[in-house]
């Protein structure tokens, strides 16, 4: 039986998982060859007040030919993480292997603080 209320919501809405703000951000859709220093420099370029003590943990690539990279970025304060997610989400990063820039995506992580060590 079809519920008339469901006609306004697509099935893809079920994939959206809301997370409360935290000091740990999950990043994805970064170039596959990006380094922790490059990512830190990108964040510092966008947000001037970022504490240089950010911790970045890169996830290992899936398969031999990874098309993008992902990982965690941990900040000392949740307010800084909120500012970074507002300024850096969808930030274009150029890569020599692609004619289009990668759009860096950020979201809050459900992992507790200190997990990115």
UniProtKB/TrEMBL annotation:
SUPFAM superfamilies: RNA-binding domain, RBD. One of its GO terms (cellular component) is ribonucleoprotein complex. Coiled coil: none annotated. InterPro entries: HNRNPL_RRM, Nucleotide-bd_a/b_plait_sf, RBD_domain_sf. Residues 15-111 form the Heterogeneous nuclear ribonucleoprotein L RRM domain. Keywords: Ribonucleoprotein. Pfam families: RRM_10. GO terms for molecular function: nucleic acid binding. This is Heterogeneous nuclear ribonucleoprotein L. It comes from Schizaphis graminum.
């Amino acid at each position: 039986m079809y519920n008339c209320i469901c006609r306004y919501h697509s099935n893809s809405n079920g994939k959206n998982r809301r997370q409360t703000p935290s000091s740990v951000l999950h990043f994805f859709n970064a170039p596959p060859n990006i380094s922790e220093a490059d990512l830190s420099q990108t964040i510092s370029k966008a947000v001037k007040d970022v504490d240089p003590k950010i911790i970045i943990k890169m996830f290992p690539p899936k398969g031999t030919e990874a098309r993008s990279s992902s990982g965690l970025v941990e900040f000392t304060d949740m307010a800084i993480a909120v500012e970074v997610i507002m300024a850096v989400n969808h930030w274009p990063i150029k890569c020599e292997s692609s004619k289009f820039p990668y759009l860096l995506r950020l979201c809050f992580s459900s992992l507790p603080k200190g997990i990115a060590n």
